[in-house]
Amino acid sequence: EARAVDLVYNDAYMNSKATINGLLNTFDAELATWMDEQVTAATQSGQLSLWLQIGSLGLFFLFGVAAIFFVLLKVKPLATFTEATEEMATGNLTVALPTVSDKAKDEVSIMARSFTTMIQNVKGMLHTVNDTSEELASSAGALLQNANQTAHASQHVTDVVGGIAQGAGMQGKQ
Prior knowledge:
By secondary structure, the protein is an all-alpha fold. Helices cover 88% and strands 0% of the residues. It is built from three helices and no strands. It has helices spanning 2-8, 11-89, 107-173. It starts with a helix and ends with a helix.
């Protein structure tokens, strides 16, 4: 039995075993190095992915804030315009709409400029109607004065004709 063990575990076996163990140790070390490299690469990739996601979320947030700001920028003049037009609808034409640049080409700016022009035209028409009414009132006053003078003259003519008729009747009796 001891001889069988010596035959199986002889120097060639031990050298082969040492060689195989050396190769296994080298393979194990290389595998560990490769796994560490893969883990590092995956970690770096994961970190890059995380940073890309955080960056994307940040950009999404910035675009959201910019969109809200843009909407508020467009809605505020519209709200101011609406308040001014509601005041004008009550008859107050002295309300001023917000000043809009002639270069602005958006719908709210175009509508505000058109509405301002319309209000100026309505004010002009009201001024014309007012002037015409004053002229008409003045003409009516002059016409009334002329009518009163005509009535007075007619009364005077009636009195004179009545006096002449009375004088002619007295002369006819004599």
